[in-house]
Write a structure and sequence with these properties.
The chain is of the alpha/beta class. It has helices spanning 3-7, 16-20, 30-43, 57-69, 83-93, 109-116, 120-137, 153-166, 182-195, 215-224, 246-255, 271-282, 303-311, 339-348, 355-371, 377-389, 432-443, 488-510; strands at 11-14, 47-51, 74-79, 99-106, 141-146, 170-175, 203-208, 229-232, 331-333, 375-376, 395-403, 410-418, 421-429, 449-457, 466-474, 477-485. Strands 1-2-3-4-5-6-7-8 form an 8-stranded parallel barrel, surrounded by 7 helices. The mean pLDDT is 91. It binds 3-methyl-2-oxobutanoic acid and zinc ion.
Length: 517
Amino acid sequence: MSEQLDRNRVIIFDTTLRDGEQSPGASMNLEQKLRVAEVLEELGVDVIEAGFPIASNGDFEAVNEIARRSRRAIVCGLARSSPGDILRAAEAVKPARRRRIHTFISTSPLHMKFKLRMEPEDVHQAVIDSVRLARNHADDVEWSPEDGSRTEHDFLCRCVESAIKAGATTINIPDTVGYAVPDEFAALIAMLFDRVPNVDKAVISVHCHNDLGLAVANSLAAVRVGARQVECTINGIGERAGNAALEEIVMALKTRHDALPFATGVKSEHITKCSRLVSAITGFAVQPNKAIVGANAFAHESGIHQDGVLKHTATYEIMTPESVGLQKSTLVLGKHSGRHAFKKKLEELGYTLGENEVNDAFQRFKDLADKKKEVFEEDIVALVDDEVRREHDRIRLVSLAIFCGTRGPKRAELELEVDGEVRATTATGDGPVDATFKAIKALVPHDSRLQLYQVSAVTGGTDAQAEATVRLEEQGRIANGQGADTDTLVASARAYVNALNKVLAKRERSSPAALSL
Ligand code: KIV
Ligand code: ZN
């Protein structure tokens, strides 16, 4: 790589598995985190922040296993400034070929006074001690001043200089509360380049939250003045309004290379697959008009636009759908396709499943092909994601019959398997969905509140599969569930049961003693 190219290379630090996973309801199990890490490697991100190892044994295990399986990407574990946090992160990332410890402490007056209850001098000392300790365990150490964008400049410069002196190789400036605006944030980064004498000894990174919808704009403004690492997440998921969206950062740099002459190592053709996987696993549907990965991002509705695109795609398309890996809906398989062709298609779509999973998915594909004339790639993705979601479930849908329409009460006859035992009931409700959800509640009593219920079609046509999303809340814990089926009510029941399984998993994690249902 020429020196010029090197200087313009932006490191993509993906924090989907850490900050992304912190968004309410987005938690993933080990198997799901491993799948996301695998596609992030394929996508070509430089750093995978795999989790916060001290947070739980589950987090530790996930970071540790991702580190073990990593091939090219640097695997990073987050730690507060305490020795316990840092040692746990160090142990978690140890098996990685390339490992990083990311340690942070708040530096803004507000955070130091009310959150940490520490004097600035003690915070400054903690910066030095934590970075030194981390450096004893990894050559690659990142330090972040939490709430950096609201930190007093003199104190920020002093902490950054000391962190670099103590051995930090990356300094990450977070806009923790998403308060910054682009010019101001760029000026903050430029100020560090001007005033911190050893700034050239570290990579300057930015980590922007999206509370004002400015995370991507702030990150790009910082890159213009010298930041060379951007922290971001797939689909922009993350705390509150989320983090800067990886796909937007990457495609802005790629599409507007004339205005933003910087490069990343991301293979943008993998973006759509990554986005779909993260959405399927977290249950966070992507809004249709979301830039780059929304269902409408490349759809042209108005006649004038359609006409223009047909004459020359560049009239209304600034990037091609193919550049983000979006293929035209292709008819993939039919009812006569065999198991071999199905398995090959799964591989093309990026799934590496065990024999049992392939068998289960193939059986569902056969059932689907019986109901639906044409099976598209999107159908296979929905079906396999549905299978993967259910792998560790304690509650499973066995059967559902619905009686609805204009006459008589709406009734759901439901069978569920709960910890291996089949239970059955009948419930009535205001409508078929209400009756179904009441039947689930009768079979598995719980106090979770339904916060969201939504359904969308996976493809066009009246025989399309429905994909339902259900969000449940229990004692402040949120769980998103999804389900897919050609029958909207079956998809809805699957989504509710999926969310309920996540609620149970969360309950188990917070009080691990065996729970009977
Ligand atoms: O938003 C934030 O400040 C963070 C830090 C841990 C980097 O996520
Ligand atoms: Zn953050």
